[in-house]
Every structure is written in structure tokens, then in C-alpha cells.
TrEMBL record, chain A:
One of its GO terms (biological process) is endocytic recycling. Keywords: Endosome, Protein transport, Transport. This is UPF0505 protein. Belongs to the VPS35L family.
From TrEMBL, chain B:
One of its GO terms (cellular component) is endosome. This is Vacuolar protein sorting-associated protein 26C. PANTHER family: VACUOLAR PROTEIN SORTING 26 RELATED. It comes from Tripterygium wilfordii. It is found in: Endosome. Keywords: Endosome. Component of the commander complex that is essential for endosomal recycling of transmembrane cargos; the commander complex is composed of the CCC subcomplex and the retriever subcomplex. Component of the heterotrimeric retriever complex consisting of VPS26C, VPS29 and VPS35L; within the complex interacts with VPS35L. Interacts with SNX17 (via C-terminus); the interaction is direct and associates SNX17 with the retriever complex. Interacts with SNX31; the interaction is direct. GO terms for biological process: intracellular protein transport. Belongs to the VPS26 family. It comes from the Eukaryota. The lineage of its organism: Eukaryota, Viridiplantae, Streptophyta, Embryophyta, Tracheophyta.
């Protein structure tokens, strides 16, 4: 045991000390438990192991028999005969609870051990020894915190000496004071935690006085009342209300406590955080903030300045101390402009800026703060991005951005955010946040009636944020939205519409995904049609179709199956658009585009039967719609005529449509047969049947086809299927007067 | 083979001469029956003195043993001749150590084992078995502590000595830096101490230019024997207790707390032919290159880098 405890006498390798401490104290605890159990057994049992009594939790020394006391005494004698101080203290601490067998007031023994520990001159060994003391003292039933306060005060004296002496018998101390202090820190932290643990308000005051905190300014001046590191942990553990109500006194203590054990700034900072945590009286807060600002204005280093102010930011903002805010921002600019800002300073600066941003409701107020933009300009790197993102998300909160200057500023912010983005690492969600914010910003920009300016803005955006594919999509959407807005305005803005469509037309090809291109082309084509730009629309539809064609070339892979529904709905959308596209190019025939679509569909090898069925159905419906004398819907434009007007009564047009749809029927039936899943096949057959029945006048041939489809459906689905029944009903209604044809 | 054992009534074997009888059991276990001529219990206490080393010269050490002083020597028959049945047998006994009215030659000094003086009490059981058989016997030491009746009259006087140690109180040569730099250590300590209590006091380093390496409290035993007309004194270190490890903070009070080793101490005894006394030495060990070179040295001998102060210590038995 002794050998183990002696290990702790060696503090030559500072870094190992805590580890050794843990190992040694584990063994010590084990010893303590064994001795305790042994003596307890002696007290409860006779030599021949019959139980005499059972000791209650709060037994007294008088309950213990002579023999057990003898054994216990022997242990203390044994420990007392150890020459070296440190192992003797550790061993006595290990069996400290055993004093209960001998005395009714074991705390007195603890008090003596506290004093004995003063004999350990090595700061590290001594502070860890006290740590073990606290650990052991907690096993005693009742113990006030007086001994802990003595411990802290003793450590204080030790530290003061360590820090102030330049020459020390311990060579390592001079080199490694910082390391030493950092190793001692946990012990101090724990001691203070134990002191303040469930201390009542009244006790707190007493504790503060005993630790030398609650003194008046007069008493303080000249002497250093505390050690920064102890003060720091004390502040950290004290309840906020206590700190706040004593904040002036604490400020004074901090001011007079300036040593190398801990950075004074950080104590000011902690005080600031504590102040901001509670709503307190204005006068106190004002006075403290005033004093702190006075102190920090004398700081030369930006880092210290920021560290302290960061903590007071919330208080300053919440209490609307605008004067302080201005002088503070000015102070930052003064110091920041002297030299380049380093990493640590950036972090504090970031925190200050974010606090500012989240405090203000209106962007305008924020931007009009003195020096705000200057400070933003001196920032760089990740911190700048964070601040930029905060500004953007704040701008988003208030909906549309109409103010031109703010748009300009936000544009600059977005630009710097974009420049700071790591384009190589755009995969994960977090790194996409900035680009989403920029997109959101562009969506929310509103120039009102100044649509040309808006378009210019979009053009500018395309130039700057050209790398972001998603963003270009937004640009196209925005420009299309502009067109509809312009058209709704009612004035003749043909040239503006043209330039918008042209903008979209140019922008779309640079977007990487074909499916997106396809959708955007369709959207733009629709807009172009709305604007009466038929030739543009034709061109756009052609581009859309070539997109569709190239879908096969590149994107076939696992992801295409995920998007299959999307593609399907895009194609259907194309079909519905084609209803209103005037097919007026005489030499190519009216159904030219339809045929184009059909051939593309056939060339796409990855199409599933279900998709094919649906597309073919759409085509059937489309041709049926086109063959009506009055189209179901028209463009709201006086100059663009629909096909119903162009080909009214033209028989060749009708026959062309019929000859177009005939083969489709065949393909349709084939496609259904290819579907491997039975239930799918059934519902597809019914879908097709419905489509055919509603599109054509039923003749016998068609009826055959329909019945065949019904049969297929019957073979695949249950007879009770609602869809099947309603389809059969529908078919019956569509039939010409009852015919004698029997179908088996 | 028959065995005989002595089982005193107390496990710690501590007895007081006047108030309490020495009692216990004799345990005999034997596979066969034994006939005997009587079972006797004898008690023997004596002070044995030996001159060895110390301040004794060559001639004195040749004398060697000084005639021992007998304190008690009595023999009691526990059982008259008879037969012991086979198996285990317990015979209780009780002997008054000092009988009222009995003229005792010497005081019952407390049991003590020193280097030159030893005070020992032995109890012996003999089972006499005639000439044909070897007699069975066993011997055991028991411990004598002073009578309670005697102790009640005495209380420990709260006598406290205040001491101070500076470069000027030292009678041996010191390192020049110690002389020039100076130091001052003050303290107080009780000089009369109850054996069951620790030595207590306190000590403060008020100033020291040279860093301190260690401060120790040495407990010393002084045994003196009257040899002819000379007194031969032997001082030996019985326990060292460190109270400061390293260059402790100035003006911080350190406790002196030394638990007395039970087996190496007894009440201070001043008899005619011999005396047993104790003292305490506070030794301040200063940092110096010399001390590092000579790592092993007798801590009580004055050295250049040591400062010391000796205080008398009277140990008494109370309760």
C-alpha cells in the first residue's frame, strides 16, 4: 500500500500525474473499504462468527466493542508510523471513515488532515491530495463545507506563490506554469462545485466572504484578493442571481485579480454571460456594463476586446444601450483594421455578428448600424459564410424583398457567400444550405413594376452564380413568372416577353439534368404560347423532345426508375400542351409532332409496359381531343389560333389523326400483354379500355379490342373489383343499340 | 504427543498489577491420559539491562550484562498431583499479581523493549511428570500497564513549549548561505503527553531564504543505566514523521501530529539504576547540493544543511 501511495510523491512528469492519481486512489479506496468492512465485522460478530448486533446507518462510537476499536486503533497507529507525509495523508484518508468507530465527531480528524496537507509544498501533489480528501470526506455522514473553504484558500496561497516566484525549487514549475495550472484546474473546479453544491442563499454570502470575495473596494485595492482561476470556477458555479446581485463587487474582484493562472478577459466574459442570463435591475447592469466598457476600451488586442464584448452583447442589445453598441462597433473597427484578423478573433466576431443579426427585426436597421458593413468586410472564410447565411435567412423571414438597396446589399452578401462556397464538396445537406439560401433570396426578390430591372437582375445572377445548377432552374422559373406577370399586366410588352423567353431558352441548356431541362422547356414553351410566340414555342417543344430523346442516352440507370413517374407526368404534360399548339406547318402534316413523340417513345428501350400503356393512352386521348370540332381549351391570346380553327372541317386532318391512332391501339394492347404483374396488367387493361371507349365511336373492331381488354382484366382481377365493374357498365353505355354479337 | 497452551483472558494480554488478577485458561490436549505431580504457574518480571555501544566505552561493553532487577517472581500450584484424562482439558486460573500487604521489591514498571533496557513479564506453566517423563511447559509474555488507581491521581498538565529555530539557535556549523540568508521557524508543542494520544502542536515557517526540503519530527528514546559510578546513556531514533514535504508556504501553520508507536514507548521511568526518557527533535532539512550527495545519513546528527531543536517529552499513562 505504502509503495502505491509513494507513487504520488513523484511529480516530475506533470502530464502523468492525474492518471497515476486515478490508479492510486482506486487502490486506496479498495483498502479503505476492506478495512471498514473488517472492523464492522469485528463490531457486529464475535470471534466464532455469531452476530451480536447490527450497526445502524448512524451508529456512534459507543456502539462499538473494545476489540473492534483496538483493531481500528491499530490501523491508525500503523498509518501514523509512516514517515513520509504524502503517503501518510493518503492512507489516513483512505481509512478516514473508520474514525467513526472511535470518535463521534470524525470531522475534527478531517480538519486536522486538511491542515496536514499544507505541509505538501508541491502545488500539483497538494491539490490532488485535496481532491482525494473531498472524495473521502463525502463518506462521512455530516460534513460542513468549512474544510473545503480552507482547502481553496490554501490552494490560493500556493498558487499565488507559484505564480509570483520566478525562481522555484521545482525546475519544472518555471517552464510549465501554464501546464501546471491546467492540470490543477479540475481539482479546483471540483472543490468549488462541492462547496457550492446545495448551499443556501445565506451560506453563499458567508462562503463568499470566507473566500475573500465579498470585500469592499477599499479593502480590495492594492492586494490581489483572489486567483483568477479560482475566481473563474467560483463564478461559473455560483447561481446567476447571486452573481448578478453582487455584480459590482465581483467586477471589482475581477479587476484586481490579474495573474497568469487564467485570462482576466475570460472572467469578465463569464460575468457578462451571467448578467445576460437573468433579467436584472437596469441600474446595476448599466453600472457594470459601463465599467466593463471602460476596461475594455483600454485593451489593445482585438481578441481580448472581442472575447469580453461578445459576452455583454446580449445585455447591451436587450437593454437598448445604443451608445455602448456604437462605441463598441467603432472599437472593433479600429482594432480590426490595424492588422489581419486571426482565426480566434473571427470566431468571437462571428458570435457578435450573429447576435446582432438575430436581435434586429428589420434588415434595414441592421445595415444602417454604424460600421456593420465595414466589420462584415473584414471578415473572411467560414465565419464570414456563417454570418452571410444568417443575414440571408434573416432576410427570408420577412417575405419579399422590395427595397432596392437591400436587394443590392443582399446580392453582395450572396455573392460573397457563393465565392466562399466549397464547390467541390456539395454533396451533403449542410453544404447545400448556402445555395438554398441564395435560391430563396432570388425567389423573394421583387422589383414590382420594374420588370426589366428584375430581368437584368436575373441575368446578373446567372453570370455570378453560374456554377449552381439548382439556382439556374430558379432563374428560369423566375423569368417565366415575370412573363406571366407582364402578360397579366395587360400592356403590350411583346419585346419584354421575348427577351424573357430568350433568357430562359439560353439558360436551360446549361442545366445538367435532362429531366429538368425537359420540364423547364415545357414550362417555357407554355409561357411562350401564352405570349403568342408560336415559333418560339415550337422551337422549345422541339428542344424538349430532343431532351426526351437524350434521356435514354445518358441517364438510364437506377435513378431513372425513381424518376419514372416524373418523366411520365412530363410526357403527359407535353401531350396536354400539344392540344393548344397550332400544328400549322402545311408541308409536314398536322400530326407531325405527335408522330415525333411516338417514335421517341418507341426508341426508349427502358420504358416499362405500364409507362408505355399510359403514354399511349395519353396519345389516344390527345388525338381524340384534337379531332373535336371545338378544342376543350384554348390559349388566352387573340393572335394564336387553335387547331380547331385552323383545320375546321378538314377531312384530311381527321383521317390523318385516325391513321395516327390506329397503330397506337395495337401498341397499346401489346404493351399490356408485356406487363408481368397480374394485378397491374388488369388495371392497365381497364385503363386502356376506358380510354378507347371514351375516345372513339365504337364499332365492331373496336368492340373486339375492348372485350379482349375486359377479358384480360377479368383474368387478372377478381370479379368484384369496382374498377372492373364500372368499366363494364361504362362500356355498355357507350355501345350502340344492343347488338347480337356474343362474346365468350 | 500432549501439548499445553496458555490462553490469557484478554486477547491483547494487557494487565494491570494491583487492581486486576492475571487470569485465563490452561489448555491441555493429549491423546492419552497423563499422570502428573502438579501443575504450576510461575510469573516472572524483571528489568534486564545491557550495555552495548552508545556512550559506553570498550571496557564497559566488556562487562556486558548488568545484573537484572527482579520485579516479581512467584509460583502458584494450580493443581496438585493427579491424572489428566485424554482429550482436551481446560483449567482456569487466576493469580493476583500484587497482593495487598505483600511486600514487593520493585514497582511494576510497564513492559518495555528498548535497545539497552528491557522490561519483560513472562508467565510459565509447568506440568511436572517425575523423572521418567519430560515435564510439559510453555512460556508466554504478557504486558503490564500501570494501575488505574495510580493513574487517577495524575493528569497531563497542558504544558506547552514555544520554540523558535533560527540560524542563531544552532550550535553546529551551518552552510554559509543558511547563515547569511537566515531562516525562522516557530512553533509550539506539548511536552507532556499521554501515551494513548498523539503528540500535538504546530509549526510555522516564517522565513527562509534557502528552500526547505523537508521538516521532520523525530521521536527519540533515551535509555540510561547506572554502571558503577557512571551513567551509560543510549539515545535511539524510534520514529520519524515528516510534516512538511518541500518548500512549504511561509506563514502557514502546519500541525504537528505524531501518533506514538505502542511497542516502542512506555511511560517515562526514572528509577535509581536505570531511566527511560523520551525527547522530540524538530529537524529542518534545507535544499543543498551536499545533502543530495549524502543521501543516507543519520537524521539526528547535526549537519551543515540541517537545523534542529530538541524538546523534552514526558510520556505518561492516563485513563
Amino acid at each position: 500500500m505504502l509503495q502505491v501511495a509513494r507513487l504520488l510523491m513523484d511529480t516530475s512528469v506533470l502530464e502523468f500525474y492525474p492518471t497515476i492519481f486515478v490508479l492510486v486512489t482506486e487502490v486506496m479506496d479498495m483498502l479503505g473499504d476492506l478495512v471498514w468492512e473488517r472492523i464492522k465485522q469485528k463490531a457486529e460478530f464475535t470471534e466464532d462468527e455469531t452476530r451480536v448486533c447490527t450497526l445502524s446507518e448512524n451508529f456512534g462510537a459507543s456502539d462499538i466493542c473494545f476489540d473492534a476499536k483496538e483493531t481500528c486503533n491499530n490501523w491508525f497507529c500503523k498509518v501514523g508510523s509512516v514517515r513520509e507525509l504524502l503517503p501518510r495523508i493518503y492512507l489516513e484518508l483512505a481509512i478516514l471513515p473508520c474514525w467513526r468507530f472511535l470518535h463521534d465527531r470524525p470531522e475534527e480528524c478531517l480538519q486536522r488532515v486538511v491542515m496536514m496537507t499544507r505541509g505538501l509544498a508541491d502545488p500539483l501533489a497538494s491539490s490532488y491530495c485535496r481532491l482525494y480528501m473531498v472524495h473521502c470526506a463525502r463518506k462521512l455522514p455530516a460534513c460542513d463545507t468549512g474544510y473545503l473553504i480552507t482547502c481553496i484558500n490554501d490552494i490560493k496561497v500556493l498558487l499565488m506563490r507559484t505564480i509570483s516566484t520566478t525562481e522555484s525549487p521545482y525546475a519544472y514549475l518555471t517552464d510549465n506554469k501554464k501546464l501546471l495550472v491546467s492540470l490543477m484546474e479540475p481539482t479546483i473546479e471540483y472543490l468549488i462545485k462541492c462547496i457550492l453544491n446545495d448551499a443556501s442563499q445565506r451560506q453563499l454570502g458567508k462562503i463568499l466572504v470566507e473566500l475573500g470575495i465579498g470585500k469592499t473596494q477599499l479593502e480590495l485595492s492594492g492586494s490581489s484578493p483572489c486567483i483568477s482561476i479560482i475566481l473563474h470556477h467560483l463564478l461559473k458555479e455560483l447561481p446567476t442571481e447571486v452573481v448578478v446581485s453582487n455584480s459590482m463587487e465581483i467586477f471589482d474582484v475581477i479587476r484586481y485579480t490579474n495573474d497568469h493562472s487564467f485570462d482576466q478577459c475570460l472572467n469578465y466574459r463569464l460575468l457578462g454571460f451571467k448578467l445576460s442570463e437573468s433579467r436584472s435591475q437596469m441600474e446595476i447592469v448599466n453600472a457594470v456594463v459601463d465599467k466593463v466598457i471602460q476596461v475594455v476600451t483600454e485593451y489593445d488586442r482585438l481578441e481580448d476586446y472581442l472575447t469580453v464584448l461578445d459576452a455583454y452583447m446580449d445585455t447591451i442589445l436587450q437593454n437598448q444601450m445604443d451608445d455602448y453598441l456604437n462605441s463598441m462597433l467603432e472599437g472593433i473597427v479600429d482594432r480590426a483594421c490595424k492588422k489581419k484578423i486571426v482565426e480566434d478573433e473571427l470566431a468571437s466576431l462571428q458570435s457578435i455578428m450573429v447576435k446582432l443579426i438575430s436581435y434586429f427585426r428589420e434588415l434595414g436597421d441592421l445595415f444602417s448600424l454604424n460600421h456593420f458593413l465595414e466589420i462584415l468586410d473584414v471578415m473572411y472564410g467560414g465565419s464570414r459564410n456563417v454570418v452571410n447565411m444568417h443575414i440571408l435567412s434573416m432576410a427570408m423571414r420577412n417575405g419579399y424583398v422590395c427595397d432596392q438597396t437591400i436587394v443590392k446589399l443582399l446580392f453582395e452578401v450572396s455573392r460573397s457567400l457563393h465565392d466562399g462556397m466549397d464547390l467541390a464538396n456539395m454533396k451533403d445537406d449542410e453544404s447545400q444550405l448556402p445555395s438554398r439560401l441564395i435560391i430563396r433570396f432570388i425567389q423573394l426578390v421583387d422589383y414590382g413594376e420594374e420588370m426589366e430591372q428584375h430581368l437584368n437582375f436575373l441575368v446578373e445572377c446567372r453570370g455570378i452564380f453560374g456554377n449552381l445548377s439548382d439556382l439556374k432552374e430558379t432563374l428560369v422559373h423566375s423569368s417565366n413568372a415575370l412573363v406571366t406577370k407582364a402578360l397579366k399586366g395587360g400592356k403590350n410588352r411583346l419585346s419584354f416577353v421575348k427577351s424573357c423567353v430568350a433568357f430562359s431558352e439560353v439558360t436551360v441548356p446549361s442545366i445538367s439534368a435532362h429531366i429538368r431541362q425537359l420540364n423547364l422547356y415545357l414550362e417555357t414553351a407554355e409561357v411562350a404560347l401564352l405570349g403568342g410566340l408560336v415559333s418560339h414555342a415550337d422551337g422549345l417543344i422541339a428542344s424538349a423532345m430532343s431532351c426526351l430523346q437524350s434521356l435514354q442516352l445518358e441517364d438510364v440507370g437506377s435513378q431513372i426508375h425513381m424518376e419514372i413517374d416524373g418523366i411520365l407526368s412530363s410526357i403527359r404534360k407535353l401531350c396536354s400542351l400539344l392540344v393548344v399548339v397550332p400544328g400549322c406547318i402545311p408541308d409536314q402534316g398536322a400530326t407531325n409532332i405527335l408522330k415525333g413523340v411516338l417514335s421517341i417513345i418507341h426508341s426508349l428501350s427502358w420504358m416499362t409496359p405500364r409507362m408505355k400503356t399510359r403514354i399511349h393512352c395519353s396519345l389516344v386521348l390527345l388525338s381524340a381531343a384534337l379531332s373535336q370540332n371545338k378544342l376543350p381549351y384554348h390559349l388566352h391570346h387573340s393572335e394564336v389560333l387553335g387547331n380547331d380553327m385552323l383545320f375546321f372541317g378538314d377531312t384530311s386532318y381527321a383521317s390523318e389523326l385516325i391513321s395516327f391512332s390506329e397503330p397506337i391501339l395495337r401498341y397499346l394492347v401489346d404493351a399490356i400483354d408485356q406487363e408481368p404483374l397480374q394485378t397491374n396488367r388488369g388495371s392497365m387493361a381497364l385503363e386502356a379500355c376506358n380510354c378507347i371507349a371514351s375516345s372513339f365511336k365504337i364499332n365492331d373492331d373496336l368492340l373486339m379490342v375492348c372485350y379482349k381488354l375486359i377479358d384480360t382484366a377479368k383474368s387478372c382481377l377478381s370479379v368484384n373489383d369496382k374498377f372492373l365493374q364500372s368499366t363494364i357498365k361504362f362500356l355498355d353505355k357507350r355501345l350502340p343499340p344492343p347488338s347480337p354479337i356474343q362474346v365468350n | 504427543m500432549a501439548t499445553v497452551e496458555l490462553k490469557p483472558s484478554r486477547s491483547n494480554r494487557i494487565y494491570r498489577p494491583s487492581s486486576e488478577p492475571f487470569d485465563g485458561k490452561i489448555v491441555i490436549s493429549s491423546p492419552s491420559s497423563i499422570s502428573h505431580y502438579g501443575i504450576r504457574l510461575s510469573i516472572n518480571g524483571s528489568v534486564n539491562m545491557q550495555v552495548r555501544g552508545g556512550s559506553a566505552g570498550v571496557i564497559e561493553s566488556l562487562y556486558g550484562v548488568v545484573k537484572p532487577i527482579t520485579i516479581v517472581n512467584k509460583s502458584v500450584e494450580i493443581k496438585s498431583s493427579g491424572k489428566i484424562a485424554p482429550g482436551r482439558m481446560e483449567i482456569p486460573f487466576s493469580v493476583a499479581l500484587r497482593q495487598c500487604g505483600e511486600e514487593s521489591m520493585e514497582r511494576f514498571y510497564e513492559t518495555f523493549h528498548g535497545s539497552n533496557i528491557s522490561i519483560q513479564y513472562l508467565v510459565t506453566v509447568d506440568i511436572l511428570r517425575g523423572y521418567l517423563h519430560k515435564s510439559l511447559s510453555t512460556t508466554m509474555e504478557f504486558i503490564i500497564q500501570s494501575d488505574k488507581a495510580e493513574l487517577l491521581n495524575r493528569t497531563v498538565s497542558p504544558e506547552i513549549v514555544i520554540f523558535y529555530i533560527t540560524q542563531d539557535t544552532q550550535r553546529h556549523p551551518l552552510l554559509p548561505e543558511l547563515r547569511s540568508g537566515g531562516f525562522r521557524v516557530t512553533g509550539k508543542m506539548s511536552t507532556q503527553c499521554c501515551l494513548s494520544d498523539p503528540i500535538s502542536g504546530e509549526l510555522t515557517v516564517e522565513a527562509s531564504a534557502v528552500p526547505i526540503r523537508s521538516i521532520d519530527i523525530h521521536l527519540l528514546r533515551v535509555e540510561s543505566i547506572l554502571l558503577g559510578e557512571k551513567i551509560v546513556t543510549e539515545t535511539s531514533l524510534i520514529q520519524s514523521t515528516q510534516i512538511a514535504d518541500g518548500d512549504v508556504c511561509r506563514n502557514m501553520t502546519l500541525p504537528i501530529y505524531v501518533i506514538l508507536p505502542r511497542l516502542l514507548t512506555c511511560p517515562t521511568a526514572l528509577a535509581g539504576p536505570f531511566s527511560i526518557e523520551f525527547k522530540v527533535t524538530v529537524v529542518i532539512n534545507f535544499e543543498s547540493k551536499l545533502s543530495k550527495v549524502q543521501s543516507k545519513f543519520d537524521p539526528t546528527t547535526p549537519r551543515l544543511w540541517l537545523a534542529m531543536e530538541s524538546l523534552p517529552l514526558e510520556l505518561v499513562r492516563t485513563k
